[in-house]
Amino acid sequence: MTTAGRSAAETAEMLQLIDTAITETRTAGRPDLAEKLIKCRRQLTTGAWHVLVAGEFKKGKSALINGLLGVPVCGVDPVAFTAVPTSIKHGDKPMAYLMPEAPADAVQLPPPIKIDIRKAAEYARTGLADDGTRLRAIETTLKRELLADGLVLVDTPGLGGGFAAAAATATMRALSLADGVIVVTDASQELTAAEVDFIRHAIDVCPNLIVVLTKTDFYPQWQRILELDRQHLKAAGIQAEIVAVSSVLRELALDTGDPALNAECGFPVLVERLGSRLLADHAAKSVLAAAGVVRNSLRQVAEVLATEHAALTRPEERQATMRKVEASGERAKALSSPSARWLNTITDRFADIQASVDADLTDRSRRLENEVTKRIKEGDPTKEWSEIVPWLQKRTNEEMTDAHTLLIRQINELADDIAALFDATAEQVDAIAKGTDMSVDLKLENLASKKGGKLEVGMHAARGWSLSSSIVTTVLVTTLAPSLLIVLPITAALGSVFAWRAVRSYKTTKVDAARAEALRAAAVYLNQARVDANRASYDLIRHSRGKIRDYYLDQAQELVSAAKHEQEAAMRAVQADAQAAATRGAAAKAELDRVSALLASAERVTQKGRS
Predict the structure, then answer these.
(1) Alpha-carbon distance 469 to 555, whole Å?
(2) What is the structure's pLDDT at 448?
(3) Any stretches that span the bilayer, and where are they (predicted)?
(4) Contact 49, 152 (CB under 8 A)
(5) Which of 57, 53, 52, 51 shows the shortest CA–CA distance to 159?
(6) Which of 171, 232, 236, 165 is nearest to 206 (CA)?
(7) Other CB atoms within 10 Å distance of the CB of residue 55
(8) Which end of the chain is more exposed for a tag (fewer CB within 10 A), N or C?
(9) Which domains does the chain have, with CATH numbers?
(10) SS (HEC) of 13-53
């Protein structure tokens, strides 16, 4: 069975398990858990996964997306190039919206502007709304089978000079938040050192990567270029597949309906790789996340049934059971209170991270300024400016990308610490399960933990993933928020502040004057780079802080609800007469057996996914 086939089978199995779990939670009187599972099911079948199409200018990125979708939704022009990112997702009707940039003093983003989707390509090239407002992105919807599984394609502006491009840092930030990336090059020449360098950095932040070689119809020697590109990647230690395609042949194949021509264009291979590589990886993580949701929901049902069964079958322990359940409820309420330690820790630690980021970016900017100052003062900018610019851009991109990576690592570490702190407190809520004999041949000792579990939430929160109460697992259900992705300044052409003409005009004047102008231009560039990095970091921290906080607040509220249901079950057992206790005890045992079997199935899926 192929990877895509296995993913489809595992997804189908999980959907069936979720449906059964929904029935069980409703039968148990837990509509909140049923709703959580319904949301999980919806996420598993329609959850978005974003694939960015990146690369240098005029390599055929927009034409590649048009070829994949079969319609010219992205602008293709022999001279003009894409100015703002365009995202394309599935929708019943073709629609398009312009997303204007917010003014510097704006509190919130301006509302989207609906346009005719046939004009989306034109706006993508100009980057301006009709009133002259700069755009930060364009969002479109199309009814295409390729997008039906939640795929969202994002056409990004081109980069000149690979990782030495002015906008490379912003692109790396976007890639770090994506589920996959397609790096586009063409058959006009073999991969340049700049492109290889860009791919190396891209695969570091987003390992789910495919390289696409375009324009095979225009260059007869494309097969030789393809082999050379493979050798370059191998020599650089980069493990990435290269798929060769022709957008022109694809368009002709779609127009004529010629299957042979369609096979020759290479797009069927690319579509298969999208499914077997990128989508399969996303589906496997989603199934693993859904298994965690099912386990957490069924555990709560099992705990209530086990408590009820113990109270019904051991009357002599009922009063002790009631006391333990009441104590468990009080601890759960304390966990969800505003004074909870884990909640205060989130506030304090994120404040520390913000201060650390500010200091780190300041240090990096100062170090870069010292480096460029030394180089400019020791040389002649009128002769070396064309070398200084890409060097400084590359150094700046390295430092700012490293700072962004460090921030994500800090958020991940914080998330781990919060998970451990929350779990340590939640273990006290688990006193009833540990203090009551539940050895009714059900082997629930490994399934009754109420704690949240280690949560890899940092990066996921950064991506805007849904961290609702429906998720308790080390791999989270993903819902990448497009707004988070597109607000990153992918189109920021920081190189423009270098004042090329101003510096070059000093060729006929004193070198000292040229150096002064070069230093001024470099200082402006570095300051803008630091401001952009600081703004992106602030948005990342604010978004992650809110998501992590809300996730654990939901978890704490679930503990309160679970404790309440246990109290009610124990109370019913205390009030039951002997005959009713015997009848209900047998029924509770049968329900517990059934739920335990479902828990075992969810556990098998989890172990399979982690292996």
Answers:
(1) 6
(2) 36
(3) 480-500
(4) yes
(5) 57
(6) 171
(7) 27
(8) C
(9) 49-279 (3.40.50.300)
(10) HHHHHHHHHHHHHHHCCCHHHHHHHHHHHHHHHHCCEEEEE
**Residue 77 confidence (pLDDT):** 64
Within 10 A of 67 (CB to CB), how many other CB atoms are there? 27
- pLDDT < 50 stretches in the chain: 431-500, 502, 506
Q: Quick: pLDDT tens for 310-368.
A: 888 887 777 777 777 777 777 778 888 888 888 899 999 999 999 999 999 999 999 99
What does DSSP say about strands 113-115 and 95-100: parallel, antiparallel, or unpaired? antiparallel
Cα separation, 89 vs 154, whole angstroms: 9
Q: How far apart are CA 433 and CA 47, in angstroms?
A: 35
Residue position matching structure tokens 């040389």: 379
d(CA 545, CA 461): 8
pLDDT of residue 84: 82
Residue 512, H or E segment: helix 511-575
Q: Find out whether 430 and 449 touch, Cβ atoms under 8 Å.
A: yes
First vs last C-alpha separation in the chain = 18
pLDDT attached to residue 169: 77
User: 151-155 and 86-90: which strand pairing?
Assistant: antiparallel
Q: Judge whether 319 and 327 are in contact, CB under 8 Å.
A: no
* pLDDT score at 497: 39
**pLDDT tens, residue by residue, 27-46:** 888 888 999 999 888 888 77
CA distance 108 to 284: 36
Q: Name the token pair of 20.
A: 């059964």
Q: Where are the alpha helices (DSSP H) in 127-246?
A: 168-176, 193-205, 222-235
**3-class DSSP state for residue 89?**
strand
Number of H helices, E strands in the chain: 20, 9
For Cα atoms 520, 522, 527, give the angle at the middle one, nearest 5 degrees.
95
Residues paired with 214 in a beta bridge: 186
Q: pTM of the predicted model, to two decimals?
A: 0.73
Which token pair is 246? 């022709």
Run of H or E including 574: helix 511-575
499 contacts 381 by C-beta, under 8 angstroms: no
**Distance in angstroms (rounded) separating the CA atoms of residues 141 and 583:** 56
Distance CA 299, CA 379 (A): 69
SS (H, E, C) 444-477: CCCCCCCCCCCCCCHHHHHCCCCCCCCCCCCCCC
- Give residue 496's pLDDT: 41
Distance CA 610, CA 52 (A): 26
* Of 87, 2, 439, 55, nearest in space to 214 by CA: 55
